[in-house]
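dude i think i finally got it to work??
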Amino acid sequence: MANPQELGDVLAYLPCSRVMEYEKRQVIYEPTNPSTGLHVIIGGKVLVQRTTADGAKLMVNIHQTDELFGEIVFIGLTESPEIATALEPTRVMTWTGDEIERYILERPRLALALLQMLTKRCMEYAERIESCAAEKIEQRLARMLLYLSERLGHMSEDGKLKMLPLTHKLLAQYVGTSREIVTSNMVQFSAAGLPDIFATRNCARSGCDQ
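look at this
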């Protein structure tokens, strides 16, 4: 059997494909225009959300350069609750579901690499479900901030960790609560003297829509 480390890089088994460019806040796909392919980010960041039955939005994740999204194409839904939006000017390479199927037949290790990637994501989602069931909101929020800082953060010249500014409304979508509760907890974090590494924004003050 192949080394798991060799199987982990899905992109190593996919040829170059067409590239699309999106402006900041431009929708890549949504329920009325669902994704028909698997996408990789060439440059930029993409927010993936899901809409609930009552129309509310939940944040699934934020993906960055070299990360894949749109894997829901594998189950062939004609309608999907997912929304993918560019958080900044973003370039995306896309393969259709039929193309992926053909490449899998030609390159079996691609199937194993995709399975490994999807299994890892399922494990991450299972941890989020466990956190929602067992932890208080402030614990879920702290865990989420650490997770996103590890994935999206970068060290500045002054040695401080910086990351993409996120609104309190978006953080609330991730941990399953209201913007007001997130704002209250962020104030408490600051009062407790925690490092100011998260450039978050209060939507009520900034007028943002994410």
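Confidence is low (pLDDT under 50) at residues 1-7, 204-208.
im so relieved honestly
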